[in-house]
Amino acid sequence: KKAMAGRNSLYSFLALCVLISIYRAFLLGYSLGEQNAGLPRAEDAPAVHGTVTYIRRQPQRVARSRDHSQDERQTSSAPSPPAPDGWEKYSRYDVRHHYDCRAYARDHTRAIPTLEYWHLLRKQYNDIVDSTVDLDDPVPPTHGYTLGEKGSPPFYAKHAADKGRGLFASRDIKKGELVHDGTHSDLVFPNAMVWRKFIFSLPKNMACDVTEWQWTQALTNGGNLQICLAPSIASLMNSSSLSPNILPKSNISTKMYAVRDIDREEEILMNYSIYETNWEKVGL
Q1: 42/20 Cα distance (integer angstroms)
Q2: pLDDT tens sequence across 184-200
């Protein structure tokens, strides 16, 4: 009888263990079902075709900050920032300091301006400065402008080693040849206030470009200094006081001639110190 009672107790214990195992398995299955309720089903999984993966299910959007500086360098559609308080009295230096243009200028990877870029710059000039200036030209600003009967000028834009953007000869150029004629392409600003309105209508990096490219110059003998700008790749011409290869015949001229033979692919260099640079005299 004692042996039979022991076996019955053992059977009861084993039966209880089985029941407990079944109950635990039930609880585990319920918990996994709750956790997997939000996961994609098999038909939502990525479908792989060769080396390309196509995701059928739209991922959740995650809010994150983004640096738009590169976008602005590639396109002119970036909005212009609001003008700062007191902008009506800003000097050229104040504008460059406000936009931190020195840091922008140190970036030698700045993109060559696109056609859209030049179109916006020209549109803003017509809208704000002078609507009577005809800026239509069969030669796009990415290639320069119409230079006589030869079409575009004999240069093109690309990155110059260790100094960013520049202009390079697209063919061999002979000494004495007209290389750039600003009389048919340069823009002039009537006064400092109009210049400020124009500058603060531009996207930030474009405003930095313009303040870097512009210069002051008297266009007639004894005339007042003018604020000038070339609205094309001509603005990318770099300066060299030691070895320029193109120069104007006087400091009131914007026609520039080759002072020696220039080889194809050689950088076009002008000496801008020929012109009087005095921003205070023009109110900036």
Answers
A1: 33
A2: 889 999 999 999 999 99
